[in-house]
Amino acid sequence: MRIDILTVVPELLDSPLSHSIVGRAIRKGLVEIHVHNIRKYGIGPHRSVDDYSYGGDAGMVMMVEPVYRMMEELKAERHYDEVIYLSPDGERLTQAISNQLSLKENLILLCGHYKGIDHRIREHLVTREISVGDYVVSGGEIPAALLADSIVRLIPGALTDETSALSDSFQDGLLSPPIYTRPAEYNGWKVPDVLLSGNPKLIRAWQDEQALERTRLLRPELLNKEF
């Protein structure tokens, strides 16, 4: 898989993409992630990438030309399955979406900044818009890193135990059950006896029951949602 991230602040992505699961997946050759500075195609001597908006609204808007030219350069080299714009008004990111995207070969993630991007980019260049929540942050870089992480961890070989991702929250529409590790008792706080029983059938039944109960208690709307 290859992910190309387009941004005006590439430095914001240095750390999230260099460590932990994503960093290891890159070093193992499971995924290529390339971060591109849109200012490469900025306008004029100062390589400007933004301008005032028509209509007089406050805030600067990313211009269409630098983004278009950078995308054309990338598309000349390979086909992209999706061109994704990280936007607060896009479809809400879910585990199902991450699962779908993990099966793709080439993705472009476009990070907005300032007030946003010229709407013609959204109309003519972007194939999908994704939001990481109903709130606004300073730019699309952190959401892009979050999306990339949620995708990369699903690539076979990215996790030490590939079955681990199958028990994550939301994979089956429920929250994951409680998890514990050694010691079996600490400060008088005990691990549930069933987890120490060594009986896989009982343990699985307990986990299923706990997953359903936690979902009913913490995220009841998920029980009526189709995944």
Overview of the structural elements:
This protein is α/β, with parallel strands linked by helices. The chain folds into 2 domains: 2-152, Alpha/beta knot; 169-224, tRNA(m1g37)methyltransferase, domain 2 (Trp Operon Repressor, Chain A), CATH 1.10.1270. It is 28% helix and 20% strand. It has 6 helices and 10 strands; from the N terminus they run βαβββαβαββαβαββα. It has helices at residues 20-27, 64-75, 95-101, 119-124, 141-152, 200-218, and strands at 2-7, 32-37, 50-52, 60-62, 82-92, 106-111, 116-117, 128-131, 185-186, 189-190. The strands form 3 sheets. A 5-stranded parallel sheet has the order 2-1-6-5-8. A hairpin with a 7-residue loop joins β3 and β4. The radius of gyration is 21 Å and the shape is elongated. The model has no long low-confidence stretch (mean pLDDT 93).
How much strand content do the residues show? 15-25%
Q: What is the N-to-C succession of helices and strands?
A: EHEEEHEHEEHEHEEH
Mean pLDDT: 93
Strand order of the largest sheet: 2-1-6-5-8
Number of strands: 10
Shape: elongated
The helix content, as a percent range, equals 25-40%
Class of secondary structure makeup = alpha/beta
**Fourth-tier CATH superfamily name of the largest domain:** SPOUT methyltransferase, trefoil knot domain
Oligomer: single chain
